[in-house]
Amino acid sequence: MRSGLIARLRERGVLRVAASYAVIAWLALQIADVALDPWDLPAWVHRAPLVIALLGFPIAIALAWFLELGDGAVTRDAAADGVARPVVHGWRRHVDIAVISVLGAIVGVFVMRDAGLLGESARPRLGVESSSLAVLPFANTGPYGDQHVSDGLSDELRNQFSRMRSLRVTARSSSVTFQDQSLDAVAIAGKLAVAALLEGTVGRGSGRLQVSVQLIDGRDGKVMWAERYDRPDKDLLTVQSEIANAVVAAVLPRFAASGQAAPAPPTEDPVAYDLYLLGRQKVREAESLELSADYTGADTSKAQAADLLRSAIKSDPKFAQAHASLAGVLLWQAIGRIDEASNAEQAAAIDREVMPDIERALTLDPKNAEAYLVKGRLLRYTHRPGVEAAYRRAVELDPSHARATVDLGWEAIADGRVDERHHMAMRALDLDPMDLKLYTPAIMSAWILGRGDELRAVVDRMLRLFPDHAGAATIACDAWSYLGRPDEMLACVTQMRARFAPDTDLALQLDYRAGAAWEAMGDETGALGYYERVAEQDPGAALDVMRLRRDVPALRRLADESLTRRVSFFDWPIGDALAHAGLTDEAIELHRHAGLGEIMASDESAKPMVSHGVIQLAALLKWRGDDEEAERLLAELSQLFETLRRHGGRSAGIRLGSAKVYALGGRIDEAFEQLALAVDALDAPQGWPFSAKGLETDPALAPLRRDPRFAVQMKRLREREAEARARLPETFRRHGLAWPPESAVP
To answer: What does the radius of gyration of the chain's CA atoms come to, in whole angstroms?
Structure first.
């Protein structure tokens, strides 16, 4: 049957036409790619030739089947199968052979060129966009005090380029990584996955500005464009604009060919610009100091940054970017300082300090991406609507902005779209792999989706790039809990505590994680010992101490104190501890005070993270007889968890949440199905409140406890906890650690 069909296709010339069509279409697409590239046309225009070629293929096949061409005109093929078809003779046949030979030769040249066999550089590596660029930090050849000029010039060029939708620009934190490394251009371009590098030097002295800059092809290291500038130092902005336009012409042919230019510099006032660059330098200092836990130094740098940015605005009141940067610093300061009694008062107080500069920036420049990013963060921190719209606008205006991209991803999870959140987190990581803050969102989203291999790959990538960073080590330790390996987590924090012993703040964080690891393995004694070490400095550890000690009077005092101040959604563990201690009324009141009764109907990105608190509130209300509110919450929770699962959510928390909602809704069989999946999830066993002991006293699971299947699942969960404890000696020995560790409490 198969051979018969092939014979018929050969008879009617279909195979010959198909092969010829594929070759001609391929060549046509190559020509279209070259012809359309110089023009700044919509994306659909660039895709149109491929779509036309694909649509034309079945038409060509149909014509070959039904029509025949011999020495005469085109005729309908009505001959029976097996009958010889007419053929072309004479000069027309020779022309056909010549054309086919030429086409074959052209295809061969294209293939050999792309493979680099003709002595030319191969095309950019897989994953490298032809219009992609990294701006390396410019070297300062002038006085040390002018470092902000060289840093600022490279930063502002990077900011200008990143606003172009046709150009992918590597973020600053990834570019500066190679500032002091002796790698060649090809190696740097390969690590950053870009097609071109911009580097230069800046010197300022005696009223003159000397700038030397060159654009390097990342494939072969050749200089694509170079220029030197010797101008009065007041011409910095003019030089910046000239460099930007020259680079656009060299890197983005379609942009330059359409007559467009790089965005203009943010101000025409050289004094304001100098102050702005100094202010941005202080912002970077503050970020670095905060990452190293020098909070006093960070606060000083923030204050200096704010003063410099205010001075820049005083020099040029129409300096939109200075207003946006000042708003970001003011929000940063306000979050750590303002603490009003209610969310509404908190929002009003922060608005008074931050919103005027956001609004001024957007009035002066409606396309200012940073202003939209700061606005989104302000709205998110104060729990108000409009967050996603602000972040989305920031990404539209600056597609290369990694922080805006990951923040937009956070908002996707509000509707349960965890797969979209993961996509955005990984996109942000690709935009700026040297920003350590971007690894946690990528790791957590892989965890929620149950993608263990991908999670490990992200952690490995992070540790390769940050081999000696305490923050990276801590994130790596946390990742073991997402993989259901509390024994590995405990070994990891033990190693890190010895390695970074002088860092007392880090030691406190690691001790708390050690307690969480012991609790995940079902050992409350071990957990309590570590929690007690840090209880005075860590309110969360203090709560865990009260919970493990069953200290009801202390929990009641904590509830009374919490009700007199502003608490957030994330304070739901206080209510959880109260509920497990039998303080039902206090737990309900605290959950309501934290806003858990309203969060499910909002667009808060925190919904999945605090959903177990909302479930507990619904369970307590149902137990007390407040069925109407309980049913409303359960309906909203059911929709959330179904969406989370539909979008790939596979974590133990999502499975347990689903089980609790089904149990409270009377869907017992479905509840047990989800409970079994939770017990066997990648990240099980987990600590409180997902430990066996926590689940056995969880109000939401009360409808399941009389069923024998519940005891079966709790037995299985305890077995997993015991398996982790049994692995401890071997895990510690494998990492070169003594067992038991000297600091171990058990």
So the answer is: 32
Task: Give dist(CA 85, CA 70) in Å, integer.
Answer: 8
CA nearest to 446, candidates 192, 682, 717, 127? 682
Give the rounded distance of the alpha carbon of 7 from its chain centre: 54
Q: What tens digit of pLDDT does each residue of 722-739 get?
A: 999 999 999 999 999 998
Kindly indicate the confidence band of residue 636, based on its pLDDT and cuts at 50, 70 and 90: very high
Give the Cα separation of 312 and 307 in Å (integer).
Answer: 9
Cis ω for the linkage preceding 740 (within 30 of 0): yes
Distance of CA 459 to the CA centre of its chain: 14
CB-based burial of residue 158 (10 Å sphere; 0-12 exposed, 13-18 middle, 19+ buried)?
Answer: buried
The listed CATH number (2.30.30, 1.25.40, 3.10.100, 1.10.3730) that belongs to domain 552-706: 1.25.40
The helix/strand/coil state of 452 is helix
**How far are the Cα atoms of 442, 510, 683 from residue 411, in angstroms, in the given order?**
14, 29, 24
Local confidence band at 106 (pLDDT 50, 70, 90 cut-offs): low
CATH architecture of the domain covering 132-265: 3-Layer(aba) Sandwich (3.40)
Give start-end residues of each CATH 3.40.50.10070 domain in the chain. 132-265
DSSP, collapsed to helix, strand or coil, labels residue 463 as: helix
Which residue intervals of the chain bear CATH 1.25.40.10? Answer: 274-490
In 104-194, the DSSP E strands lie at: 132-135, 139-140, 168-169
Domain 274-490: assigned CATH number: 1.25.40.10
CA distances from 48 to 19, 33, 52, 53 (A): 22, 11, 6, 9
Distance CA 257, CA 248 (A): 10
Q: How far apart are CA 643 and CA 671, in angstroms?
A: 16
Residue corresponding to tokens 């990694």: 402
Q: Provide the residue type at 83 as one letter.
A: V
Number of other CB atoms surrounding residue 109 within 10 Å:
12
φ and ψ of 138, to 5 deg: -75, 140
pLDDT confidence bin for 589, thresholds 50/70/90: very high
Question: What is the value of pTM for the model shown?
Answer: 0.72
C-alpha separations of 496 from 43, 77, 437, 469, 511 in Å? 49, 79, 19, 10, 10
Q: Average per-residue pLDDT in the chain?
A: 81
- Give tens-digit pLDDT for 475-497: 999 999 999 999 999 999 999 88
Lowest-pLDDT choice from 64-68, 453-457, 705-709: 64-68
Its sign, for the CA torsion 440, 446, 450, 455, is negative
Owner of token pair 């994953």? 127
Question: Any idea which of 204-208, 505-509, 691-695, 699-703 has the lowest mean pLDDT?
Answer: 204-208
Greatest CA separation for the chain: 106
In 218-336, which ranges are E strands? 223-232
Residue 502 phi, psi dihedral angles, 5° rounding: -65, -20
DSSP bridge pairs for 227: 213
Q: 320-337 and 343-364 are packed helices; what angle lies between their axes, rounded to 10 degrees? A: 170
**Reduced 3-state DSSP string for 567-633:** CCHHHHHHHHHHHHCCCHHHHHHHHHHCCCCCHHHCCCCCHHHHHHHHHHHHHHHHHHCCHHHHHHH
User: Which residue is associated with the tokens 């550890």?
Assistant: 541
Please give the Cα distance from 53 to 164 (Å, whole number). 30
110-119, 442-451, 737-746: the lowest-pLDDT one: 110-119
Which tokens is 647 given? 């979008």
Highest mean predicted confidence (pLDDT) among 159-173, 196-210, 226-240, 625-639 = 625-639
Residue 223, beta-bridge partner list: 216
Query: ∠ CA(411), CA(474), CA(482), 5° rounding?
Result: 60
For residue 254, what pLDDT band results from cuts at 50, 70 and 90? very low
22 vs 424: CA distance, rounded Å: 36
